[in-house]
Amino acid sequence: MATIAIVSFRLGGDDGVSIEAAKWIGALAQLGHSIRTIAGAGPVDVLLPGLAIDAATPPTRHDLSMALEGVDLVIVENLLSLPLNVAARDVLAAALRGRPALLHHHDLPWQRAHLAHLDGPFDDEAWTHVTINDRSRRELAERGIVAEVLRNTFDCDPPPGRREQTRAILDVGERPLALCPVRAIARKNLPGALHLAEQLGVALWLLGGAEDGYEEELSKLAQRATVPLLQGKPDEVTIHDAYAACDLVIMASTWEGFGNPVIESVTHRRPLALYRYPVALELLAFGFSFSSLDDVDELRRELIVPDEARREANLAVARAHFSLAELPWALERLLQCHFGQLDL
Fold it and tell me: Which are the contacts of 22, defined by CB distance < 8 A and separation ≥ 6?
């Protein structure tokens, strides 16, 4: 078996890239590979602060060489995809030239308005590109880079969460609760989520904190809200508790590279109100059935009499196409196809 390095800005956190990287790490370990985690932040095997998003200076080539010593394959999680730290991206790309590497693209620069003027991602004959949606695969192809799609996967039988205990911690009483399991940034469309919550008369729970200068806008939303707006996840509450405590999930984002809460709402057997952002249309094509943000009457009925048949049908789609149990074999096929010469 091989020694595989997983490299990113940060690992081990609750951001989408870290969560998906952890799933890949588990699947690769299940296949018998030895894993070395390398990042600028997080609980990792090799901490290189210069790789962090906000690092003032990148790591040196020597530091990267030492970190990658003895590694057969490098998997890069978004660090060579989204230029959040251009200097770190450039030094890592230079270090990997001619070296077997898999670039796992969660986001691409032209998909973010404030990064669209930057170049990348780069390509090399020794590298393989993998995207999490078909839109990104097509957009890379338009730029001369061949990639294949391996969508995010999910535990279709997650641990049961603590509904009553969590609701008591949140002090929401008997009021219905809508969960918005995202960070507070502009593209998450929190005004749209709050508007729906107000129409339904339900409390809204924003799980993530404000980032990218959104603090003031979030404060204004909270001041204007006519329903309770809860913010943040208490330390003792797990993501499974959060889904168990809610009666509805609202995904109002205008853009997501994937949108894990879409499938997580299904695996946790919760109804979803969804804004049809571009990649959501790819997910819906698999056969899911969700309410839209403007289906207010339908959602009111759902809160009174849950549509169990719809939930079970959605879960069957998730099991068929997005099961975490299939990830090890999908990765094994991928590695054998592109890096079979390494005896992985």
Answer: 11, 12
Report residue 40 as tokens: 């600028």
Cis preceding linkage at 121, omega within 30 = yes
Q: Whose structure tokens read 């957009």? A: 139
pLDDT in tens, 296-311: 999 999 999 999 999 9
Strand 203-206 and strand 177-180: the pairing is parallel
Q: How far is CA 286 from CA 138, 149, 269, 277, in A?
A: 18, 15, 18, 15
122: in domain: yes
Instruction: Please give the Cα distance from 250 to 243 (Å, whole number).
Output: 11
Identity of the amino acid at 333: R
Q: Both 81 and 168 in a single domain?
A: no
Give the domain extent around 15.
3-153+324-342
- 70: its two tokens: 């003895």
Cα–Cα distance for residue pair 164/186, rounded to 1 Å: 32
**CB 104 within 8 Å of CB 34:** no
CATH number at residue 269: 3.40.50.2000
Q: What angle do CA 119, 77, 286 make, to 5 degrees?
A: 95
Summarize pLDDT for 67-87 with one digit per residue, the tens.
999 999 999 999 999 999 999
Residue-wise over 129-151: b if at least 16 C-beta within 10 A, else e? bbbbbebbbebbeeeebebeebb
Dihedral (Cα; 134, 138, 144, 150), 10-degree rounding: 10
Cα–Cα distance, 89 to 41 (Å, whole number):
15
